[in-house]
From TrEMBL, chain A:
UDP-N-acetyl-alpha-D-galactosamine binds at F41, A42, V43, Y46. This is BGAT1 transferase. Keywords: Glycosyltransferase, Manganese, Metal-binding, Transferase. Belongs to the glycosyltransferase 6 family. It is found in: Membrane. GO terms for cellular component: Golgi apparatus; membrane; vesicle. It is a single-pass type II membrane protein. Mn(2+) binds at D131. Binds 1 Mn(2+) ion per subunit. It comes from Erithacus rubecula (European robin). GO terms for molecular function: hexosyltransferase activity; metal ion binding.
UniProtKB/TrEMBL annotation, chain B:
It comes from the Eukaryota. An alpha-L-fucosyl-(1->2)-beta-D-galactosyl derivative binds at H154, E224, D247. This is GBGT1 acetylgalactosaminyltransferase. It comes from Erithacus rubecula (European robin). The keyword Transmembrane applies. GO terms for molecular function: globoside alpha-N-acetylgalactosaminyltransferase activity; metal ion binding. UDP-N-acetyl-alpha-D-galactosamine binds at F42, A43, V44, Y47, D132, I133, D134. It is found in: Membrane. Keywords: Glycosyltransferase, Manganese, Membrane, Metal-binding, Signal-anchor, Transferase, Transmembrane, Transmembrane helix. It is a single-pass type II membrane protein.
């Protein structure tokens, strides 16, 4: 692919169709006997998306590989009839509803962080956070597996960047904007990330900051200081608002 | 960015070329980690004459601002004149026997390196590069080169089709790579990575070299053939472009914008005796 940027200035590959061989990557993944998990939240009205999400994920997410889906929901009864693909397992984690939106976001980070420590780290090697209100339309495979992985938002397809940084601008700030809808990495990195973001969201609450996309803002702030080791192109995310 | 060369492999390992990275971003990510980076090089027999220039140029260009340990394996430790080193950098001259032939010396490197790594204390070293001594640094070699397992693309073969790679083609060798297989031709003069990965790698290569010996066969390009075999099945996580392993006898093509590390001119016949 010569039409798009395939490498960040810190040498993290940007995954586009045509840049990788899924066969080679599958062989490597199997060689290492890895297990991957997905965390997702379906709280209040969002239970409605569960079926669509799980059906598409069963078909398209790491097809042929063992995946543990960890579904945090306040309506566990809505899930009982779901059929999972042979290598896929569903773990339903009941949560309480009734909190405000900000609290939910902060709680998500805290819950994922504590569940990583208590449970996930013993069950999976890699963990990805996905929004429940997406449906996968094509295969998402082991090309997503790396230490710290984020997805470039759909509306920043050709990030402006110049590898010859002009002295006054050390960090190329704001070059990549990542979506909070799909990110992940090794359990160790995810633990660090969720713990850090949970702390940051707490500060916002204290300062009375109420903003749209706080989850995303804190994620981006974290990733500015802890550069992802691999980026997924906007092919890997479909903004449901577009 | 570079559009004239491949910058990512099919298994999503970056290929490091001038213009693909920003040294400042990488430095700000790696410096706080307080890393110690090692370099091994072998100066056996007449090759001791290369040590001074290797070290002087490394002091100028290799991992500036990081802690560096040079491990020079030699059969005459007395001939290693300690060069002036910057703070945080040290030199250890480690004795090895003088073997009969240059091929033997070359192949024993894997064994020596793996033995040495087995004896290291865990926190002593984080990353290690294994380099040829008869080479000189000309331009910066920094944290853009760090990775779990790092290999360098051989300068003689990066524009050449795969069928012409000088892989070992005899199936009786443990380094055998059949026609139609292979990703790149990697040079034996440069490889590196995390200490644990380099340890596994050198140990495995040593085993395959021994297997060949038991079968009375020596691979076409000695340990370089074994290195290429290993990297076929255990793909490197990062590749260095030929900028990092250049041969000054070659004319510089436009893809090579910066030569960082290259061979010293020498008379091969004389030096290999």
């Amino acid at each position: 692919r010569q039409d798009v940027l395939v490498l960040t200035p810190w040498l993290a590959p940007i995954v586009w169709e045509g840049t990788f061989s899924r066969d080679i990557l599958n062989a490597q993944y199997l060689q290492k006997n890895l297990v991957t998990g997905v965390v997702t939240f379906a709280v209040e009205k969002y239970w409605f998306f569960i079926e669509g999400f799980m059906t598409s994920a069963n078909k398209y997410f790491l097809a042929g590989h063992q995946v543990n889906f960890y579904l945090f929901t306040d309506s566990p009864e809505k899930v009982s009839h779901l059929q999972m693909a042979p290598e896929k397992q569903l773990f339903v984690i009941p949560v309480q509803n009734g909190s405000s939106w900000q609290d939910i976001s902060r709680c998500r980070m805290r819950m994922v962080s504590s569940h990583i420590q208590r449970q996930f780290q013993h069950q999976v090697d890699y963990l990805y956070s996905m929004d429940i209100n997406v449906q996968l339309l094509a295969h998402v495979g082991v090309e997503i597996i790396d230490d710290l992985v984020a997805t470039i938002s759909s509306w920043q397809v050709t990030p402006q960047q110049d590898s010859k940084t002009h002295g006054t601008h050390p960090e190329l700030q704001g070059d990549f904007h990542y979506t909070a809808s799909f990110y992940g990495g090794s359990v160790a990195e995810m633990y660090k990330l969720t713990t850090a973001c949970f702390g940051g969201l707490g500060e916002d609450r204290q300062n009375g900051i109420k903003a749209q996309g706080y989850h995303e803002r804190h994620l981006n702030k974290y990733l500015l200081q802890h550069k992802p080791t691999r980026l997924l192109s906007p092919e890997y995310y479909w903004d449901t608002e577009l | 960015r570079r559009q004239d060369v491949l910058t990512v492999t099919p298994w999503l390992a970056p290929i490091v070329w001038e213009g693909t990275f920003d040294p400042k971003i990488l430095d700000s990510a790696y410096r706080p980690l307080n890393l110690t980076i090692g370099v091994t090089a072998f100066a056996v027999g007449k090759y001791t004459r290369f040590v001074r220039r290797f070290l002087e140029s490394a002091e100028q260009h290799f991992m500036q601002g990081y802690q560096v340990n040079y491990y020079i394996f030699t059969d005459s430790p007395g001939s290693i004149v300690p060069a002036r080193l910057q703070r945080g950098r040290r030199l250890l001259a480690l004795p090895v026997p003088s073997f009969s032939s240059w091929q033997e010396i070359s192949m024993r490197r894997m064994e020596t390196i793996s033995r040495h790594l087995a004896r290291l204390r865990p926190a002593e070293l984080h990353y290690l590069f294994c380099l040829d001594i008869d080479m000189v640094f000309h331009n910066p070699w920094g944290p853009e080169t760090l990775g779990d397992m790092v290999a360098a693309i051989h300068p003689g073969y990066f524009t050449v089709p795969r069928e012409q790679f000088p892989y070992e083609r005899r199936s009786s060798s443990a380094a055998f790579i059949p026609e139609g297989e292979g990703d790149f031709y990697y040079g034996g003069a440069v490889f590196g990575g995390l200490v644990s990965k380099v340890y596994e790698f050198t140990k495995t290569c040593h085993m395959t070299i021994l297997a060949d010996k038991a079968n009375g066969i020596m691979a076409a390009w000695q340990e370089e053939s074994h290195l290429n075999r290993h990297f076929l099945t255990h793909k490197p996580s990062k590749l260095l472009s030929p900028e990092y392993i250049w041969d000054d006898r070659k004319p510089k093509p436009p893809e090579i914008r910066l030569v960082r590390f290259s061979t010293v001119e020498k008379n091969y016949k004389e030096i290999r005796n």
